Amino acid sequence: MASLSLTKLGIAAGGLALSLSAGAGFASASPDLGPIINTTCNYSQVHQALVAQNPSAAAEFDANPNAQGMLQMFLNAPPAKRQQLATMVQGMPEAQQYVGTITQVAGSCNNY
């Protein structure tokens, strides 16, 4: 279960990760994922921001190669694909605990 959650974190973080105008397609109570979907950050920047902002989440992420791969895939995808992945992640209750962290990382990863 932890691997699945971290995989979702990777998807979410990648797009969601690492942080981005897609909020229009979601209910008003849902977070704005535009910063995640439209991030210009690369994997290294997102990872460095995660380490700096949430070391425990970073340690969990680092222990899961699947999550790392998903984040790399997410960040390498075009915004339309990121939107699809973010929408999928939003439907996963177990991924919701990561949305705040991902949004925070997405908003600051350009500083790394």
- Largest sheet, if any? none
Order of helices and strands: HHHHHHH
Oligomer: single chain
Helix content: 55-70%
> Could you say which structural class the secondary elements and strand pairing correspond to?
mainly alpha
Total domains: 1
What's the N-to-C terminus distance? Answer: 31 Å
pLDDT averaged over residues:
78
Number of helices: 7
Q: Tell me the Rg in angstroms.
A: 12 Å
Q: What share of residues are in beta strands? A: under 5%
Which residue ranges are poorly predicted, with pLDDT under 50 across at least 5 consecutive positions? Answer: 15-28
Shape: globular
User: What's the total count of β strands?
Assistant: 0
Could you characterize the architecture of this molecule?
The structure is a single chain. This protein is mainly alpha-helical. The protein has one domain (2-24, 31-111). It is 65% helix and 0% strand. It has 7 helices and no strands. It has helices spanning 2-14, 34-37, 43-53, 55-62, 65-76, 79-90, 96-108. Helix 1 runs parallel beside helix 5, helix 1 (2-14) runs parallel beside helix 7 and helix 3 crosses helix 4. The longest helix has 13 residues, at 2-14.
Question: What is the fold's blueprint, element by element?
Answer:
Blueprint: H1 2-14, H2 34-37, H3 43-53, H4 55-62, H5 65-76, H6 79-90, H7 96-108
Protein name: Hemophore-related protein
Organism: [Mycobacterium] crassicus
Signal peptide: 1-24
Can you give keywords for this protein?
7 helices; 112 residues; mainly alpha; Hemophore-related protein; MHB; single chain; signal; UCP010611
